Structures are given as structure tokens and as C-alpha cells.
Amino acid sequence: MINWIAFDADDTLWHNEKLWLDGRDKYHEILAKYQLEPGIDEILDKTEIYNIRYYGYGVMSFALSLIEVAIRVTDGRLTAADTNAILNLGKDMLTAKLPPADSVHETLNALSASHPLMVITKGDLFHQRRKVNEAGLRDYFQAVEVVCKKNTQTYTEIFERYRIEPEQFLMVGNSLRSDIKPILELGGWAVHILNDLRWAHDEAEIPAELHSRYVEVKQLEDVREAIKELGIAS
């Protein structure tokens, strides 16, 4: 039986990945005048992942990586005007209105009637909390945790803070690396939402012995049936 259900935020409660893809398209438009060689996206991917250790996750980390790569691939020719354009791109991403996942209110309303709910998300504290509030979802959740990373240590600290037993905890999210695998390794349960647009960094291999503790679904509204399928509904 589960006593707590937690949700990832980006690309779980609302659609987020397209915002990042559109941001990359605008970035390419800014840099088009420099007539650069192909391969900028690969350089950006590596730089963004490398910079997580310095800046963490989120739009501001992404924007700093955009500027760093632009300076590098233009051999320092990036103008102040184009640097400002990249900064404005980041600001636009920070203030963008994100479309909610289908049936998000119906799903959260039903589950919050029987379980305490929590958000556990990576990223900038101010930005992530603002998105939860602007989406009109805050009242469904008893807690909102914005963390630097999602691994077994982070989840263990959350369990201790809220006095949660791992085997009584269910995590819902789109990232195998961040949302699913660490929870399963701690003895919890999970529902993996399969999104069409996924960041390669979110992928992970789930050991065969843990497969019985999670279910994959195509959309948020399937979570309630997934909980029944796992046989852990209270």
C-alpha cells in the first residue's frame, strides 16, 4: 500500500521539452550569420551536461551554456548584441506559459482525495515554484520540493524529512534516470510517463529485477489505472 504519491513537474504535469527545442531553433537563427560548421547541437549537448555540476538544471543553466558555446564556436566573434539576444531568449523561456498535461486537474483531484501528493522537481527554486503556482496546481500538493539533482541520496533525505517509508512511496515522472530508477533502487514504486519528446540525458537502464515495481503509461490520465495494475492502491 502506498501512503504518498510524488510527481515530477516538467514534462509530467505540463509540457516543457518543446520549449527547449524551440529555444534551440531560435539560437540557431541568432548564430546563422556566423556561417558555422554543422555540429553545434552536439557541442551544446555535451556542454549543457558538463555544466550541470556548476549551474544545476533549469533554464538559467541552459542559457549560460548557450552563451558559452556561442563564444566558443564563433572563436570569440559573438557580438554584444547577439549575446543580449541569447539572454533575452533565456528570459522568454523563463516567462513562457507552458501547456498543462491532459487531464492534469482531474488526475490530481482524484488522487489528492485519497493520498497526500508532493512535487519533486529539479531546477531553479523560484522558477519551478512559480510554474506550479501559475499552473493552478499548488493546492493539490502538500509539499513542493525543488532539488539540485534526483538520486538515491536526495530521495532518502526527502523520505527522512517527511517520515516516509520507501515501500509506501510512488513516484510519477518522465525521466528513467531521475524519477524512476532511484526510487526503485530504494524499494519504492513508480509510474513512467512515455513522452514523444525526451532528453537523451534522462534515459537509463532499469535492472530486470526491478521491472515489477513500475509501469509505463502514455499519458498522465493513465496513472490511476497504473496504480491499480501495480496492486498497491490503498
Question: What's the level 1 CATH class of the largest domain?
Answer: Alpha Beta
How far apart the termini lie comes to: 5 Å
| Tally of domains | 2
Query: How many whole angstroms does the radius of gyration measure?
Result: 19 Å
Could you name the ranges where pLDDT drops below 50 across 5 or more consecutive residues?
none
- What would CATH call the architecture of the largest domain? 3-Layer(aba) Sandwich
Q: What would you call the shape?
A: elongated
> Which strand order spans the largest sheet, edge to edge or round the barrel?
3-2-1-4-5-6
Based on secondary structure, the structural category is alpha/beta
Q: What's the total count of β strands?
A: 6
Short description:
This protein has helices at residues 17-31, 40-55, 59-73, 80-95, 104-112, 125-134, 152-162, 176-185, 223-230, and strands at residues 4-7, 117-122, 143-147, 169-173, 189-193, 214-217.
Structure write-up:
By secondary structure, the protein is α/β, with parallel strands linked by helices. It has two domains: 4-14 and 98-230, Rossmann fold (3-Layer(aba) Sandwich), CATH 3.40.50.1000; 17-95, DNA polymerase, domain 1. Helix content is 47%, strand content 12%. Strands 3-2-1-4-5-6 form a six-stranded parallel β-sheet, with helices on both faces. Helix 1 runs antiparallel to helix 4 (80-95) and helix 2 packs across helix 3. The longest helix has 16 residues, at 40-55. The protein is elongated and about 60 Å long. The termini are close together.
